[in-house]
Amino acid sequence: MLTGIGIMLLTFVVMEGVAWVMHKYVLHGFLWFLHKSHHTRHNHVFELNDLFFAYYGTLSMLFFIFGSDPIDYRFWIGAGITLYGVAYFLIHDVFIHRRIKLFGSTSNVYLKALNMAHKVHHKTQGKHDSESFGMLWVAPRYFKLAYGIVKKQQERGAIYNQRT
Ligand SMILES: [Zn+2]
Ligand SMILES: [Zn+2]
After folding, report:
1. What is the whole-number distance in angstroms between the Cα of residue 153 and the centre of ligand 1?
2. What pLDDT score was predicted for residue 113?
3. Residue 45 Cα, ligand 2 centroid: separation in angstroms?
């Protein structure tokens, strides 16, 4: 069980690497025709890009099917992929792109940095010259930026509180 959870967490971390490579070289590569839908403004509920959820969903399901009788390492790999998928959806689709209005603004430095990094990724609407392809791993410079903003907000809040 403990090994299983270890495999699951390791898969979760590896998935961030897989997602980065996929995003940079495949989605902004030969599968751009699918991913493009996520880089252009529209008012549809779904995007062609959402097919990737089906892809990772199928992948994890196969791991579950082949690894569950009896339960072996494949089951836990499937669990790790699922866990990453849920985290990705909550952060990328709900928190950053607000496809479901669930979270308000945050003063959490990590979440702010993550949001900024991804917004920079979306700045370029084309296939090339984008950056920040990862999701949960954020480059240190965004942390610095986010930290500065949060600190300023807090200072402003403190001044406001002193006045009232
Ligand atoms: Zn992209
Ligand atoms: Zn996005």
Report:
1. 30
2. 94
3. 14
Q: E strands within 48-90? A: none
Q: Which residue has better confidence, 131 or 85? A: 85
The predicted-structure confidence for 95-130, as pLDDT tens digits, reads as follows: 999 988 888 888 899 999 999 999 999 988 788 878
Residue 93 contacts residue 50 (beta carbons within 8 Å) = no
Q: What's the pLDDT score for residue 158?
A: 78
pLDDT at 164: 58
CB of 16 within 8 A of CB of 137? yes
Ligand that lies nearest to the alpha carbon of residue 131, given by its number in the listed order:
1
- Report CA(45)–ligand 1 centroid distance (Å): 18
As beta bridge partners, residue 68 has 71
Question: Which ligand is in closest contact with the Cα of 118?
Answer: 2
- Ligand 1 centroid–CA 14 distance in Å is 19
Q: Dig out the tokens for 103 from the structure.
A: 């979270």
* Ligand nearest to the backbone CA of 25: 1
Number of domains making up the chain? 1
Q: What is the structure's pLDDT at 29?
A: 95
* Structural domain span for residue 10: 2-163
